[in-house]
Design a protein that fits this description.
- Belongs to the TrpF family.
- Its EC number is 5.3.1.24.
- Keywords: Amino-acid biosynthesis, Aromatic amino acid biosynthesis, Isomerase, Tryptophan biosynthesis.
- One of its GO terms (molecular function) is phosphoribosylanthranilate isomerase activity.
- With 207 residues, the protein is α/β, with parallel strands linked by helices.
- The chain has one domain: Aldolase class I (TIM Barrel, Alpha-Beta Barrel).
- 26% of the residues lie in helices and 21% in strands.
- The protein has 6 helices and 10 strands, in the order E-H-E-H-E-H-E-H-E-E-E-H-E-E-E-H.
- The chain has helices spanning 12-21, 40-47, 65-75, 88-92, 164-171, 191-202; strands spanning 3-7, 25-29, 55-60, 79-82, 98-103, 122-126, 153-156, 175-178, 183-185, 188-189.
- The strands form 2 sheets. An 8-stranded parallel β-barrel has the order 1-2-3-4-5-6-7-8, surrounded by 5 helices. It has a two-stranded antiparallel ribbon with strand order 9-10.
- The longest helix is centred in the last third of the chain and has 12 residues, at 191-202.
- The radius of gyration is 16 Å and the shape is globular.
């Protein structure tokens, strides 16, 4: 079964609805440069609305160590998700399991970067270009999804309720991650889109 993460939450009602739908993980964007930014205290209030057995993920991007330490202390996320130029040593140094996002906007030339994070719990392949933020709705060539890596691969970028089925059939990812594809505006989720998205994912046969 394809695992499912909804990301970029800013409202408690949206978090609760996503959990009722049955998502596996919810993500909070903690980097200040994002339009979906939530501060650590606000994110902690969102986290408190998450029921058991739903993973909470804090997204950062080239943020200072002291700030990431604050995020961990206040939010207590289950996982970190790094979206910048952070090295494997840096990502692993916080003592929290982490995902590493790799910008696939350059196509096949981005593939070598996937091998630079041996300690990542999983790799998130996103459609944006190097140095850009995720959540942009950009997609990449799903056929580039590698098949020779041991880490779980998560597909992101440009996914919508209408194309996620095709994306999963093409890329065969361990999981999918969506933000803009289930929104009415950055950080404001659309309940109907959230429901349609998970229905499309769950309708696919298990591998």
């Amino acid at each position: 079964m394809t695992r499912l993460k909804y990301c970029g939450f800013t409202r408690i009602d949206d978090v609760q609805f996503a959990a009722r739908l049955g998502v596996d993980a919810v993500g909070f964007v903690m980097t200040r440069r994002s339009r979906r930014f939530v501060d650590p205290v606000s994110a902690a209030a969102l986290r408190d609305a998450v029921p058991p057995f739903v993973t909470t993920v804090a997204l950062v991007m080239d943020d200072e160590r002291d700030y990431i330490d604050e995020v961990i202390r206040v939010l207590r996320p289950d996982m970190l998700q790094f979206h910048g130029d952070e090295a494997d040593d840096f990502c692993a140094s916080f003592g929290v399991r982490y995902l590493k996002a790799v910008a696939m906007g350059e196509g096949a030339s981005a593939l070598p970067r996937l091998r630079a994070y041996p300690r990542a719990a999983g790799l998130l392949l996103d459609g944006h270009g190097l140095g850009e933020l995720g959540g942009s709705g950009q997609r990449f060539d799903w056929s580039l999804m590698p098949t020779d890596l041991t880490q779980p691969l998560i597909l992101a970028g440009g996914l919508t309720p209408d194309n996620v089925g095709e994306a999963i059939r093409t890329a065969r990812p361990w999981g999918v991650d969506v933000s803009s594809g289930i929104e009415t505006s950055p950080g404001i989720k659309d309940g109907a889109k959230m429901e349609r998205f998970i229905t499309a994912v769950r309708a696919l046969p298990s591998a």
